[in-house]
Amino acid sequence: MVDRPYNFSAGPGTLPVPVLEEVRDGILMLPGVGASPLEVSHRGAWFRDVIGEAEANLRALLPVPQTHRIVFCPGGATMQFSMAAMNLLRGSGLPAAYLVSGSWGVKAVAEARKEGDVLVLWDGADEGYRRVPMPAEYAVPEDVAYLHFTSNETIHGVEWDAEPVAPAGVPLVCDASSDFLSRPLDLSRYGLLYAGAQKNAGPAGVTVAIVREDLLERVPDGLPSMLDYRTYVGSGSLHNTPPVFAIWILMLVTRWLRETVGGLDAQAAADREKARIVYAAIDASDGFYRGHADPGSRSRMNVTFRLPDEDLDARFLAEAAAAGLIELRGHRSVGGIRASLYNAMPLEGARALARFMGAFRAAHAAAAPARG
Ligand code: PMP
């Protein structure tokens, strides 16, 4: 096995080494196919099996009930911001409701506003996006097209522990890009859930959308085919050439989750433990490391924190990289440090980061500016 640094990138994020090895081994010529996965028709038997297994794995893992359809779209979660609103808001005669707990929610709202009226029921901007709302802080009207939330805000490191509750009859719509497949979900509660693959599910290039089938009756006619969920459902996501390579790797990652990890309960336990280890290093630091998210809204996937000043942030990043801990820089809009602990990050990676944090603090705390 290659000796690689631990990669804390927020996305595209670290992938399981056995999957990368399988990709390496298959990239020139797949046994039984005689060509690279990059060179064969998406309408052939090989890809039919790949996309079939990808769907079956997702169905088994989450699990996905028979009431819901799984489709594979291009265009990232950003295209889903538009697609969700085009399909379920445009022409509905109702506003859509959004709960905004970070930058991705802001972007989702901006795209939805192009399709219809949007009610922002709660927005954490004034507090700098440190938490999700408490149930008493927002009320979801009964006459809205749907309620949208972002289950994990990747930039701020703020995650919903459990989904918000919508009144009966209001479909719940979720951008789950950065915590998809990190825990089992009760999808019967969701009308639509979408997730770009490039954190927990595979490489960039494919986005999974899981839609309750009866909602497709609400889709207005006249949408461009590629922006209409019914096109994907009707064609098995094969209306045009899909991102074959990305779907192949998604299939391998979901197979790894089933066969090697042992399912999403096991994955969730591992993810909780990794996050516990890194947050414990923050909490034990006497304020040297300051976490961004309120403890009750801390993301298990993206741990965001700062050091006493920006010079120390920069030194931390440089010394961490030298110690084999890479891609820890916070998003440019918020700065600081962000450690992403996606599914493929081994427990030992979280331990190595926590050890490094302790040693760095011991070396630099005395010289750090005093805080009042
Ligand atoms: N939503 C969330 C929660 C994200 O983390 C991201 C990407 N980091 C996006 C949406 C946008 O995804 P994409 O770049 O695939 O459009």
Would you mind describing this structure in some detail?
It is a single chain. The chain has 372 residues and is an alpha/beta fold. 34% of the residues lie in helices and 15% in strands. The protein is built from 9 helices and 14 strands. The protein has helices at residues 17-26, 45-61, 76-88, 103-113, 229-235, 244-261, 264-283, 310-322, 347-364, and strands spanning 6-7, 68-73, 96-100, 118-123, 147-150, 152-153, 158-159, 172-175, 192-196, 207-212, 290-291, 302-306, 325-326, 337-340. It has a 7-stranded mixed beta sheet, with helices on both faces. A hairpin with a 4-residue loop joins strand 6 and strand 7 (158-159). Helix 2 packs across helix 6 (244-261). The termini are far apart. Residues 11, 76-78, 104, 150, 154, 175, 177-178, 196 line the site of 4'-deoxy-4'-aminopyridoxal-5'-phosphate (PMP).
